[in-house]
Amino acid sequence: MLQREVLNNIVIVIEGQRIKAVGPDVAIPAGAIVTDLSDAWVLPGLIDCHTHITFQKSDYYEDLFRKSPIDEAVYAHVYARNTLNAGFTTCRNVGARELIDVALKKVIDAGKVPGPRLFVSGQTLTAISTVFRLTSISATPTASSTE
């Protein structure tokens, strides 16, 4: 239900990692840990539908030619945690080298590292003439593949 006004005096019940109930008349379960957020804004988790969560480029050519997929894998969990801390609880990753995003999803799902819920694609698929041609699987057939 879409609300267009700010709601006050709302109770949010969370069990485990899931929101179980929200509303003004929701009973607080016995033994629950209560956090007063009456002076804060509460938002639903944000969703980012186009991420490359396993890497964060700072110097494009340095990163492309001097960092290996192992370097990306070592830092991927840091980017996942930063993304979650920024409020994104779900991300669709649209490409990573060497299935790093698949491995990252597995460790997040297992509760080993904090991160958003991930929908992953694996290796990037791209046209041959793009900037990702050196790190991707090409969707454009080459002359030798069409003969």
Report on this structure.
With 147 residues, the protein is of the alpha/beta class. It has a domain at 46-146: Amidohydrolase (Translation Initiation Factor IF3, 2-Layer Sandwich). It is built from four helices and seven strands; from the N terminus they run E-E-E-H-H-E-H-E-E-E-H. The chain has helices at residues 60-66, 69-85, 100-109, 143-146, and strands at 11-15, 18-23, 46-51, 88-93, 117-119, 125-126, 137-138. The strands form three sheets. A three-stranded parallel sheet has the order 3-4-5. A two-stranded antiparallel ribbon has the order 1-2. Strands 6-7 form a two-stranded parallel sheet. Strand 1 (11-15) and strand 2 form a beta hairpin. The radius of gyration is 21 Å and the shape is elongated. The protein starts with 10 loop residues before the first strand and ends with a helix.
